[in-house]
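User: Hey, quick favor. My workstation is busy. Could you predict this chain's structure for me?
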Amino acid sequence: MNSYRIPEIAKQYTEYDMIQIHTDLPDFPELRTRLLFAFLNEDNKLSSLSELFTLATALVQLGLDTHDLVTASNEVKEKKASRSRQLKVLAGDYFSARFYHLLAKTGQIDMIKQLSNAICEVNRLKMSSYMKMKQLKLTAEDYIHHMVEIKSQLFLSFSEVMSETHKPAWPDILRSFVRCELLFNEIFCMESTSKFRGSWGYWHINQNGTKEERKQLQVEEVDTTKVRTLLHKYSISSQLYQLLNTQTKQLQDYIKKLDSDRLQSELFHMGEPFLRWTGEKPKVLEEI
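Assistant: No problem, here it is.
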């Protein structure tokens, strides 16, 4: 079996001086990457390609995430900020090109097609989500659903190539892990009011708040004190913890249904950070 070393291999593409000096990159999609590698590596027919497929997918995801950091307007005149914006565009293009090159040179044309179709679906979902946000028609649950689907699409494309043993479990486990990660990050977003706009809490208050409270959300620069008051009034952090707790329990149930003890053990370890925050710890982990 192959050992997991995707982040280290990816550094040859991400750690260019020009990028590191002049701009920031999004976080590496570590959880989804490790999860995909674990499933592919468990499959006898795919284990020899697990590293290649996972690396290529991680680079595509990194490319998409890097492009998401590009500001919508190019009106920035300050040289440093303008250069950072330009390099984000180029870096995103570069990561996407590397995925194509890696798969093409090994003759994995079908996988190029699958990931390319997934990229199209990601962009469609992003446009749908953007339109709902712009029209202020997004609910808090819509927000979670859209974000989970957007973050999952590239990795879901592997459902078609997995063995019959793991194919049924893959979508549920992937989405469940992504949902846990998203809720986990949303909890930390509540610690900074600068990250409040567009968060789960923002859409929850927009959905359930009074007319005056909804107006407060629309101002260009929200009042920090008012935001904290709203977060407290609607128990945003408490609700997020409850959602995370519910999701971790569902994730455990999905994992327990897997036939492979080794894969079960690996996935439980991957989910342990979420379990610590919710006070849960599966018996499988206690026995390791």
